[in-house]
Amino acid sequence: MNMKIKRITAAPFLGTITIGTQLGYTDKSISENEIIKFVQEYQDQLIQAKNVYLSVCLSECKVILSGQIEPHFQLDFINYPKFPLNRAVLKIEIEEFSKALMIKFMQNRIVVEFLEETVMFEQSDLIDPRIKLK
């Protein structure tokens, strides 16, 4: 069996959005299925409007800060070689996506990590009441 396998590359890129699983500062949880549904709807709109394909890897994690131990989702993005994008375009689209996540799931702040910078979007100075402040 002699298959011809193509090797396709893209410039390295990594972006990660971290979003809490709680709706705002309530005890109401956001389900993985709700996140997936939102991601797929957003992807479909982005493909239709701009022909931009954002491939997302979704995983669960916990953010621990002082008295807060909060379940979160991480959404990881790469420059997918099948649909490569310019770095600047990719960053802009990921940042816009993170703002849409914030609004949909009532997040006061959301963090986006890139290799060269960490960006936080914030709607107000409110802090989760479980975090112990001095």
Give me the strand/helix succession.
EHEEHEE
What is the number of beta strands? Answer: 5
How many structural domains are formed by the residues?
1
Main sheet: which strands, in order across? 2-3-1-4-5
Strand content: 25-35%
Q: CATH class, please?
A: Alpha Beta
What is the CATH architecture descriptor? 2-Layer Sandwich
Low-confidence runs of at least 5 consecutive residues? none
Structural class: alpha+beta
* Average pLDDT taken over every residue: 91
Cα shape:
elongated
- Per the CATH scheme, the topology name is Alpha-Beta Plaits
Distance between the termini: 67 Å
Q: Describe the largest sheet.
A: 5 strands, antiparallel
Overview of this protein structure:
- This protein has a single domain, classed as 2-Layer Sandwich (Alpha-Beta Plaits), CATH 3.30.70.
- Strand 4 and strand 5 form a beta hairpin.
- The chain has helices at residues 32-50, 87-104; strands spanning 15-20, 56-65, 68-77, 109-114, 118-122.
- Helices cover 28% and strands 28% of the residues.
- The protein is elongated.
- It contains 2 helices and 5 strands; from the N terminus they run βαββαββ.
- It is an alpha+beta fold and 134 residues long.
- The protein has a 5-stranded antiparallel sheet with strand order 2-3-1-4-5.
In short:
The chain has 134 residues and is an alpha+beta fold. It has helices spanning 32-50, 87-104; strands at residues 15-20, 56-65, 68-77, 109-114, 118-122.
Descriptive labels:
134 residues; alpha+beta; 5-stranded antiparallel β-sheet; 2 helices; 28% strand; elongated
